Amino acid sequence: MARRRSTRPRPQIQASRDAAGVIRRRSPRLHPQTQVSEEGAGVTPRRSPRLHPHIQANVKGAGVIGRRRRRRRGTSPAATASLPDDDGMLWEIFLRLPPQPSSLPRASAVCKQWRRIVGDPKFHRQFYAHHRKPPLLGVFLRGGKEEGIVFNPILDPPDRIPPRRLSLELPSNRDDHDLLNCHHILSNHDDHDLLSCRHGLVLVKECVSGEVIVCDPITGKQRRVAVPPVFKWDHLWGVVLCAAGDQGHVHGSCHSSPFKVVLLSLFRQDRQSLACVYSSEAGEWGDLILGEGPYYIQNFTAYATLVGNVLYWSFNGNCILEFDLGRQNLAATAGPPITPDFYYGDSQIIHAEDGSVGFAILAHSRFRMWQRNVNCQGVATWVPWKTIEMCNIPGLSLQTWEQMTWMGYDEDNDVIFLYVGPNVYSVQLKSMESKIIYETNWISEIHPFTSFYTTGTSIDGGSNPAEMLHGTSDACLV
């Protein structure tokens, strides 16, 4: 007699009512995730909706369709069209990268797609417009007799630019006044004086040739301009600035923009001040502009401050010389009233909080600031703004405050530079944060250099973006 297994102790094996054979399947009590298809002859395994609620079985069909797949297939065309493509999303992300020199080269080193985006000239223009103010890369100053005019970087790695990248150089052929590539570092250091630094351009006076040289340290291009003979060479001040009038133009990337050079002479026998403007677009000097000059000059600030469309110099404590670029007018005006202990202090025109003209003077261990208000009749009055005890500035060592010297002012970032031997400090006037930027025993006027530095991001630039700050640019100064 054949033994037949009982179905009671083994409920996981049951006979199919409709089929002749026996089909083994797991018990729904022990394995609830496996159920029999109601309409199919076979068994279709599927995951339990209790354990996997994101997957449900199709009741009528033998197959299983996941909800994720159905949702992906069911996305409406309108929803897809509202999402930007990959390039568009990356473009918006890259626009918000910091304006520091390492940001775009690092992004361009990731892949060809990223490099194509950040190397697009249109992207560069939008990048500049988004940030508005270029970063402070470093300072130009007159070094020792063996150094000449040097660039001193102030950013920390990886944004720190090697000094050789922005070294001012002269062409070997001094008779060529056209656009020239730079090949030789300044060799005769006593023949050159640093006059101005603004909008990514540097103005140098060459004593031997009687010319001023407009240099673009980023591109290595320069242009020579002969100085009118009426100017007294020993007492000559100058300013260079971008002359681009395009709507939305952002200074700091003015490599191919027109420029202006303003020359100023004060020590004249007729006690008149003299100014003249050179335009690169016209390729010539404008009319000579005469103004009433001071009877004597002491502590004249060599570097001017641009507020709006007016250049300002300070001298004799609280005296101001201003040149209106639009009206072509040169005049001397009075600054705020100061006490006798500030007569021989270092003074400077600065930017006030609301964009108006400010006046700052440093004497002993105090720093005083005024703001000029102009009423509807055009009458200007000076209002006290701030008085700061230098000992209250964090990080500023004042053990030898007698040696404190004002060395420069960055109008783009509202930063002053102070020498407290043997260190040079940068002090942000709004936050009053200070930082040691370098150490030196040579006191010289500092000319801040602010510019966007995006070299090494172009596919056709011939540089390796992975090297970060070692790219070169093919832009040209005109």
Automatic annotation (TrEMBL):
Source domain of life: Eukaryota
Listed InterPro entries: AT5G49610-like_b-prop (IPR056594), F-box-like_dom_sf (IPR036047), F-box_dom (IPR001810)
One Pfam family from the record: Beta-prop_AT5G49610-like
Entry-linked SUPFAM superfamilies: F-box domain
Disordered: region residues: 1-83
Start and end residues of each F-box protein AT5G49610-like beta-propeller domain: 194-451
F-box domain ranges (all copies): 82-128
Name of this chain's protein: F-box domain-containing protein
